[in-house]
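Sequence of Glutamine-dependent NAD(+) synthetase (Mucilaginibacter dorajii).
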Amino acid sequence: MKIALAQLNYHIGNFESNTVKIIDHINKAKQQGADLVVFAELCVCGYPSRDFLEFDEFIGLCEESAQKIAAACKDVACIIGLPTVNNRTEGKDLNNSAYFIEEGKVKAIVNKALLPNYDVFDEYRYFEPSTEFDCIEFKGKKIALTICEDLWNTIENPLYITRPMDILIHQQPDVMINIAASPFAYNHDEERIAILSDNASRYKLPLLYVNNIGAQTELIFDGGSLVFDNTGNLVDEMPYFEESLAYYTLEDDNTITFDHPSTLKTDRPGDIEQIHQGIILGIRDYFYKSGFKQAILGLSGGIDSAVVCALAAEALGAENVMAVLLPSRFSTDHSLKDAEDLVANLGCKSETIAIKDITEAIETSLHPQFKNLPFNIAEENIQSRSRAILLMAMCNKFGYILLNTSNKSEAAVGYGTLYGDMCGGISVIGDVYKTQVFALARHINKDKEIIPINSIVKPPSAELRPDQKDTDSLPEYDILDKILEEYIEYRRSSAEIIKMGYDEATVRRVIKLTNSAEHKRYQTPPILRVSPKAFGMGRRMPIVGKYLS
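Predicted 3D structure, token representation.
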């Protein structure tokens, strides 16, 4: 049996585009002699569709698309994912389903059993878990078809009380197929391989796994579809961060063979390389799927805005990036030079708008209220908010989307100005710690100098007061980021972190700052998720909570 794995980029709610893409790949696979074409979880509607799923019309359009796809399945079979109506009175109204289509008809329906309800996942909000499991017979073989999380209950401390494969294995399947929408994080590829390998070895069956690629607002899907033999050995690995169609033959003895050169990775890409690839895809899809082409950002000469500008130019083309230099009376000449050098290196568009007169006008207007009170954070933030007003005005006038340039370290401890430098349409590096931003800059410069070296080596500064340095307000970033990672990614308490050897006063201050800044993060733009625990939909904290503050 020749099986095609179609690793594609879908668009949520774009039924016409998704359906055409699926049918196109069915026809391509058919021309190559495939017997079965396998697509990803919820491919018909895109993942995650969230509360679109609460509209009956949306579910109806899913079924209409599925019938169009079925009509194209002549002399070839396919597996597609879509939401379907739960015909039982009890339980949620929908199932997360897979259709097995053969000769123009839906021959079997498999419903997802294990519905993740943690981090970025919220499937139990919409779907009813399946309790019935049956193999699919096709071409003399029995297929154990599962959907994403259905194979993720083999880990220690399992989240669910059942394993669908424990039931399906009694029906003596010949092969496992898993369709998935597994989001990207820089450590997720190795975890994914380990989990799926464990399934193949546990059940002594070959396993073909197909994943989504593409970005849906903050969620990025990296592809990397996988094929394992019946010992759990990884035999092939499809490309990451790009669409792909690959063919595999399930032989009579249930071994897997293929004709194309193996894309199995001998050296796994490092975290920074994966973050780079993920962000490029995230920016590109955010703009393309939203119908926008041009980005704008404030370029300060610092490392954060420099990295974001370089990433945007790579993702969208330098001609579609507008960098605006917004010097204040505290901006240094070398910062302006660094910003100008970056613009020259990238070839992007640029404008310079000084904010000195604007901020002084606002300060003058507030003089009766501020009287002779000393300069403090109020005046600092007037500068940041003046920049935001100018950038948003250019967005409105010329149709740009503003890129937010705050990093994860700043977002964590609230080192940013609401309605100032924290505004934007999408946060590009809001899930990248400052120390990772430095590493990302060096990675971008690996072949030639794009980001000026001075932007990388000079002490970070917001330049909102004379001789300001980030370390005036924060611990050194190499210490800060380690504490933040322990608290955010690993959910360790202050007491646990202190026991690891970190200074008690520093730990307690950092965690208090992090909790106190929750109200700021609640009002920030969507953040491209590249880590196992990003701010946003996957981390839900009370704004007025006192625990650990």
